[in-house]
Amino acid sequence: CISRSLDKGVESLEIDVHLTSDSHIVVCHDETVDRTTNGNGKISEMTFEQLRTLRIVDEDGNETDETIPELCEILELIDGKSHLLLEIKNKANCVGALERAVVDELNRFKAHNWVTVQSFGDKTLEAIHQMDASLRLEKLLFFRVIGLPVIFDGGFSYFSFQKYNYVESMNFFYKSVSKPLVDKMHDNNMRVRVWTINELSRIPKADIDGIITDYPDAFIEAIPKTANH
Hints:
alpha/beta, 7 helices, globular, disordered C terminus
């Protein structure tokens, strides 16, 4: 999928990463392999060798020749030809090992100029920032509570622009985005991306800075190349 997207000129790609039981960073949307491969089990409880025996399945459930890749393989493939939005999915009480591994890998590939890290987890973002303040970070969340300094990112938490002054963008669920919200973010030097939009008609009527979609083909022709998406 990434190779095809690069061939089509997609300017930004999004991936999710997890850590295997033997500390390999692998790229998979889910924390288990049940939905995306011909196997089952939690990635965190499997070795990389075990993962490599599995085959990715397509949307119809048919086995392919592809296997779950390591992050290093994706970084080598992209190598600055596209921007990469890398999501770290991590449990709040397990912060540390995955974040450290990701930072080390991005440094090894000298990828700071073309990679941005995003996460729902404040502890993950804070840990990454402490490890390497030069890495660009974005905060994932569902919505901001109207009239209150509160956001929902899987749980309710306090929000202020000062609290997230090291974060470049707040990435909202698309249904929660409005023009006044986006204007407020921009007034405070914060960008706004929205997720996950798979139809052009669902793009909010606001000056958003980017969209996250499962179907980039639908947007390549419709959105100018100068946009950040």
